[in-house]
Amino acid sequence: MDAIIKSYIEKLQDYNLIMPAWYDDRKIVMLNQLKLPKEEYIELRTAEEIAQAIKDMVIRGSGAIALAGIYGVLIEVFNSKGKLDRLEAIGNLLISTRPTAVNMHKTVSNLITSLKGLKPDEALVEVQKLSVDIMEKQLEVERQIGKNGAKLISDGETIMTICHAGGVAGFGFGGRTLSIFRTAVEQGKDISVISCETRPYFQGARITAWELKKFGIPVKLISDNMAGAIIQKNLVNRIITGSDRIALNGDTANKIGTYLLALAAHDNNIPFHISTSKYNVEPRNRTGKEIEIEFRNGSEVLYIDGKNISVEGVEALYPGFDITPNRYITSIITEAGVFTPPYEKKLFEISRDI
């Protein structure tokens, strides 16, 4: 029943990937990103379990949660033996886990639409074919973003980034941002990276630094509140960050703290780039004001490793993302090329090609 997806996962072993999750004998094996840099894996056997893992940030990053969404649909079709009665509800459950992440919304919606009306035996085959096709296309997107973005980087540069937009936040090659660093190094360029630790989940410290070390790329870690001083001292040549959603005008939703980097870069004439793909462009959002920002539980700010770092009774706010206005973005790096302002026409064109 699972021969197609099984064969493809075996093929991926030759790609030199850092994969966030994969299919294995009617279950999904997922890297628990909450535990990184310690490598622990969990096994998920239902779409509901996958949805909970996304919600709990076990897997995160726009590409990776789109991958998890694919696996959620795949496992649901397998578990139901090809019956699609619950598929619409499962799709809504998966999408609801991270409302700002448009990549998963598009991927899951398109996958479910393509399966509608199929007989059970047809659905069991088609869900595998469609899943493999999406994964292969997304991997190629990461490779192409890497090639396009690496053209901006000169030998000897130091680049700053925030959060983690790498292989385990994507489909394994290097995600939307670390694919650029990986490709630059593969081209023989000597580069280094400054990674913001990225409170409150410390993705920059736990995941970006871990992945860059795996790629053999020198990395230095800073706390988030050091970034402005580092930029002001001209210790970085440029800043490249990922994105979770981009409005048609180029306004970008990304991990909280991105906006502050863009402001500091603008004030110090440092190029600030967004790395993204057509899957992250939402043409229904004409500007960033129309992007829904996910507010997470404030306790995630107050507790580190289960310990309260503040005073009992104090409340915390935790917007998971912020919006960087297009006027602070030097260019947007995509699989279709590097876009400079104005962005609207170019972003609209690539958003239609899905």
From TrEMBL:
GO terms for biological process: L-methionine salvage from methylthioadenosine. It comes from the Bacteria. Belongs to the eIF-2B alpha/beta/delta subunits family. MtnA subfamily. InterPro entries: IF-2B-related, IF-M1Pi, IF_2B-like_C, Initiation_fac_2B_a/b/d, M1Pi_N, NagB/RpiA_transferase-like. GO terms for molecular function: S-methyl-5-thioribose-1-phosphate isomerase activity. This is Methylthioribose-1-phosphate isomerase. SUPFAM superfamilies: NagB/RpiA/CoA transferase-like. Keywords: Isomerase.
